C-alpha cells in the first residue's frame, strides 16, 4: 500500500482517481490547487504524487520544481494531444505521464510501476492476508502461501477491484491476455483453487451471469 496525493482541480476526475486507487489498496488524499498541494506536501510525506498540469494559482510545472528536490515520484496528468506538456514534465523530472481520459486499469498499472521502480510499493492487507505486488507474494500470519504465477495475477486483479463484479471476458483479458471463448473451465478451476488455498470460500463470490468478485471488507 502506498500513500498518494492527487492534485487536480476537476473534482470528478480527482474523485475517480481516488476511488480507483483506493480500491487497489492505496491511501489517497486530494488537493484542488497548487497552493493546497504545497501545504500538504510541507506537512506530509507521500509515496507518489499525481499532478495535473493546469492548476489554479500554482501550475503543475511550478509545483514540480518545488517537488523535485524531495525525491517524491510524480506522474503528470495531461490533456490528450498535449505533447509539449508531456515533454516538459519529463524534463522537469516527472517519472511518467497519463493522458486524460484514461482507463482505470492503466492508471493502476502506471502508478504501481512507478512505485515499484522507486521501491515504495508496499503490501496490501485484505481478509487477514498480506499481498505484496512487488514481490508477488501472499502471506497469512507471516507464512507464505504457494500460488502459481497465474493464480497470483488473478488474485491481485480481484484485490485491486474488490467490491466490484468483474466480467469473465475482462478477467481473461487481464490475466490470460486473451478473450474467453466457450471454455470457461480454466477460470473456474483457478477460482476454486484460490478459494481453497486462501481460505476465501465466501469472500471470492460468484456473480450470476457476470463473473467473480472479491467482497469488500
Automatic annotation (TrEMBL):
One of its GO terms (cellular component) is protein-DNA complex. GO terms for biological process: regulation of DNA-templated transcription. The modification 4-aspartylphosphate is found at residue 52. Keywords: DNA-binding, Phosphoprotein, Transcription, Transcription regulation, Two-component regulatory system. Residues 121-216 bind DNA. Residues 3-115 form the Response regulatory domain. Transmembrane segments: none annotated. PROSITE patterns: OMPR_PHOB, RESPONSE_REGULATORY. Residues 121-216 form the OmpR/PhoB-type domain. One of its GO terms (molecular function) is phosphorelay response regulator activity. May play the central regulatory role in sporulation. It may be an element of the effector pathway responsible for the activation of sporulation genes in response to nutritional stress. Spo0A may act in concert with spo0H (a sigma factor) to control the expression of some genes that are critical to the sporulation process. This is Stage 0 sporulation protein A homolog.
Amino acid at each position: 500500500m502506498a500513500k498518494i496525493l492527487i492534485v487536480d482541480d476537476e473534482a470528478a476526475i480527482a474523485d475517480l482517481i481516488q476511488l480507483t486507487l483506493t480500491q487497489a489498496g492505496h491511501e489517497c488524499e486530494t488537493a484542488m490547487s497548487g497552493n493546497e498541494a504545497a501545504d500538504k506536501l510541507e506537512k506530509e510525506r507521500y509515496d507518489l504524487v499525481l499532478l495535473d498540469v493546469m492548476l489554479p494559482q500554482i501550475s503543475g510545472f511550478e509545483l514540480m520544481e518545488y517537488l523535485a528536490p524531495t525525491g517524491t515520484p510524480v506522474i503528470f496528468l495531461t490533456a490528450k494531444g498535449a505533447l509539449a506538456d508531456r515533454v516538459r514534465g519529463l524534463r522537469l523530472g516527472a517519472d511518467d505521464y497519463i493522458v486524460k481520459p484514461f482507463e482505470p486499469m492503466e492508471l493502476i498499472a502506471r502508478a504501481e510501476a512507478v512505485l515499484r521502480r522507486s521501491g515504495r510499493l508496499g503490501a496490501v492487507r485484505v481478509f487477514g492476508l498480506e499481498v505484496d505486488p512487488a514481490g508477488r507474494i501472499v502471506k497469512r500470519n507471516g507464512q507464505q502461501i504457494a500460488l502459481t504465477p497465474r493464480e497470483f495475477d488473478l488474485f491481485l486483479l480481484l484485490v485491486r477491484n474488490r467490491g466490484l463484479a468483474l466480467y469473465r471476458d475482462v478477467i481473461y483479458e487481464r490475466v490470460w491476455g486473451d478473450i474467453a471463448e466457450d471454455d470457461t473451465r480454466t477460470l473456474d478451476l483457478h477460482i476454486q483453487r484460490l478459494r481453497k488455498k486462501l481460505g476465501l470460500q465466501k469472500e471470492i463470490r460468484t456473480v450470476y451471469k457476470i463473473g467473480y468478485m472479491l467482497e469488500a471488507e
